[in-house]
């Protein structure tokens, strides 16, 4: 039979092996699973915060949707109708009358140029009147609600001629070409 000392060593060895097996088979997988669950929990927290931020953003968007619709209408009205730019031409005529200018307007074909985002219509404008009125008309056009680009600008001093009622016709002639955009994508022609 085994001595008491050997029995104690065997029991200690069995308990140590049992502890090692318990650690390897139970505690280690358990701590590993706890770590994985903690990582998953952190990921879920991040997702929850992102969803909360999206919810706040969506609520802000819903509050501002009427303003955005109004802005969209303003932007849409800033473009001309490329088939019949009547409202733009009426706008030019109205302001020419306001500034006492003799106005000649002629639309022309404005082909798309590389870099153009939208298709456009060209408008040649010749206005004759007082120098200050011509400059105010040009400034008004520059600050107008239309999406335009002035491609050519000429301001010339003219010799006043007398009209039928003995009033001078004008001391300056303002001439420029405008590229008025339609808001539709530009179509580049292939050569």
TrEMBL record:
Keyword check for Transmembrane helix, yes or no: yes
Q: What are the transmembrane regions? A: 9-30
**What is the protein name stated in its UniProt record?**
Type 4a pilus biogenesis protein PilO
> Origin organism of this chain?
bacterium (Candidatus Gribaldobacteria) CG02_land_8_20_14_3_00_41_15
- Keyword annotations for this protein? Membrane, Transmembrane, Transmembrane helix
